[in-house]
Amino acid sequence: MANRAKYVYFFGSGKAEGTAEMKGLLGGKGANLAEMTNIGLPVPPGFTISTEVCTYFYKHGNTYPKTLRKEVEAALAKVEKAMGAKLGDPANPLLVSVRSGARASMPGMMDTVLNLGLNNQTVQGLVERTGNERFVFDSYRRFVQMYGDVVLGLKPVHKDDIDPFEAIIEQKKREKGVHLDTELGADDLKDLIERFKKAVKEKTGRDFPEDPMDQLWGAIGAVFGSWMNERAIAYRKLYDIPEWWGTAVNIQTMVFGNMGEDSGTGVGFTRDPATGENVFYGEYLMNAQGEDVVAGIRTPLPISQMKQQNPKIYAELDKFRKVLEKHYREMMDIEFTIQQGKLYMLQCRVGKRTAFAEIRIAVDMVQQKLITDREALRRIHPDQLNQLLRPVFDAKEKESAVRAGRLLAKGLNAGPGAATGRVVFNAHDAEEWAKRGESVILTRIETSPEDIKGMDAAEGILTARGGMTSHAALVARQMGKVCVAGCSTLEVDYSTHTMKVSGQVINEGDWISIDGTTGEVINGKIDTRPSEVLQVLIEKTMDPKDAPVYQEFEKIMKWADKYRRLKIRTNADQPDQSANAVAFGAQGIGLCRTEHMFFGEGKIGPMREMILADTVADRKAALSKLLPLQRQDFAGIFEVMDGRPVTIRTIDPPLHEFVPHEEAAQRELAQQMGVPYEKVKQRVDSLHEFNPMLGFRGCRLGIIYPEITEMQSRAIFEAAAEVKKRGIPVEPEVMIPLVGHVKELHHQAQIVRRMAEEVIREQGVRFPYLVGTMIEIPRGAITADEIAEVAEFFSFGTNDLTQTTLGVSRDDAGRFLLPYVEKEIYAKDPFEVIDRTGVGALMKMAVERGRDKRPDIKLGICGEHGGDPSSIEFCHIIGLNYVSCSPFRVPIARLAAARASLLNDRPTARGRARARIGRGARKRRR
Ligand code: ADP
Ligand code: MG
Ligand code: MG
To answer: With CB atoms 3.0 to 4.6 Å apart as the test, which of 30, 44, 77, 398 could cross-link to 253 if both were Cys?
Structure first.
């Protein structure tokens, strides 16, 4: 008996069986209703049927566990006792809502039924008790409509089709010659209800259910059924929500916002979800119920207005806002209803927000001592920093556009940032156009879950209807898209693919610009400018004092640096790139590809001469022309890096990549070199390889042509000596690529060390230097112990290591790798995210074997994975010393490294306790 499964959890009268931590079982809504009850907020009593029932339901041919009915009846009895009313009682009926609620919030995915329990008898009882006939029949009308739509399936599949109930309402209004629903009286509503029921009978062949218990089970079944509807499935796919999670069902006592002008309903955020500013943010409507606020039928009022209209309720709400933030230590999203002057809380969850807001909230909450800097770091996903680096409109250009009368409209600033693109009017077109490489602004009257893929493809989203909590606004914030919502002056016409606004017609394909920070919609294209962070750090055109976003960025970076163990280097081949990386916080160069330099000015000629040379003497002659050019490049980098370590890789790609393949170019080269064309052609042809990736490249080049390695190391060390003499410290690290056998490295290292000692002697100046290797083919990883006898450092070249471990050529993988990921053969593209079990295992082995032989060996990664947060975490776990990534990813890597250490290193007991409540929030954001 003791172990019998429990499926139903009661909440009410100040005590709940659930808690916020039980989201897996109770869903987000249920768990938080329980939590709010427990912390003493006024929540109408109810109960939650757990997600396990959903799982059971689908496993057992849409049936329920045997004990469920009894549990539901018992919980209902408790609710009835708490309310002193009974479901179906003709004299004193209890009404409930039936609400879905999965573990992660799925906005607009599933449907809620309100006012359940009304029938021809209970309406009379309610009229007598409330003396408010209009309210009662308005509620009944809503109930029959929602139940008909959601449970009985009358809702049209396509959103452009007309809801049969709405058609009946329109008809009625025409008959009465009125415009608004509120102009219909009780008798009209009664008539509507009769007509609704007739429509139900016609469409389904059955009478509308009168028995409240039948109504209740019908609604419960519909919620569980909706877990598998098309919209829900599409949403889950997009956000990686597993099907097995299931949804819970919440049955909750109704409170009424539609009882008159002292009643109302609203939604809010405890802080501004767009900017993160610490102000109460929300919208409400008096004399309204439930969905009226988000449905866009009536325009809600900003919450600030309630301060004047109803100071008592406002003060109470503001108090709850603070209670919630203090308890959850998070920015929360709330739903509330006022029934005849009494406030009820109907929902709370961690609020969705922009990256801007996320960062500002985290920083502010640290300041307020609500959270620690560690928690702040755990909350910000590294990729969110990307948004801070995103462009904004060129302020002057925008100003002049506005002055020139190009401002078309102003909507809500639902998703900050600047986007410019061509107008399309549906999600499908957005996808198609984006595929062709067009920038598009998806423009809709309002969006719905069907539009998600198009929203994802668009640069920005513009809607004519809906508030800050509309579907478009919520989804855009989650996706990090620029969004202007509720731009009510747009007259969008889907049939002609045009919109009218301020007397102008905008056609499909026309350029517009939207500013998601201010809500402005501007005709034509406006150039964007780099973000504040870039203006301060890279362009140095802005003073940090005038850049609040930069200041927050800087705080996060400072905290990240406090907790990370990994050092962050950058992949850079030029002084300017290196300088950018240093501005972003790079602590060294992890990969300087010398071959990129050969394409620089004046270098490709001697390079080609070197490649085409027949004799060692000719090759040396060509190399001696390259030496000063390379030295200059290296000197520039050393200077910028100012004593930070610089890893320089000796020549790596197959030589044929440097020579011309067309006849004309070959003839030209022959002329330049003073040799016959045939000779050039023959030499180029002889460089042809069937599989260059595994061919004559990497250290193999330096072993066959040692004079190349000699020249390159000489250039590196002469540059080092030169810069050192100028008083700038240097730390060169020479890296030999593609080593599979220790003897390969030994051969090359000898040359490098000999050159270093020669230069030190010649120049009379000492500097530290290291010689190491890339680990990028399996044999190198497997024999890492042998290799470590020679190598002073390893750098994992995970691009090639992934190619060679998987036996997949990255250049040829296009055709099958994406399908592989779709079929979940690999969970993620292994060239983006390290394949931990395969490639990762080799890395781990190489780390262990290398350290075993040489405890102070320096270990890093320079493949593109070095900028990917999940791969960075893996590098942290296996104990590398640094990761190296492209300059613009350095801030992301700094944060990712800190998070890796906060999430993986053993926390203290106190840290664990503090982290507990915030955990649900982190999971939500993946
Ligand atoms: P969603 O997940 O789409 O937000 P909800 O279950 O929160 O769906 O319900 C939709 C609307 O109905 C919300 O505005 C909510 O506040 C309102 N609502 C739900 N339950 C009740 C209730 N018991 N009393 C009054 N309003 C309710
Ligand atoms: Mg819903
Ligand atoms: Mg809700």
So the answer is: 44
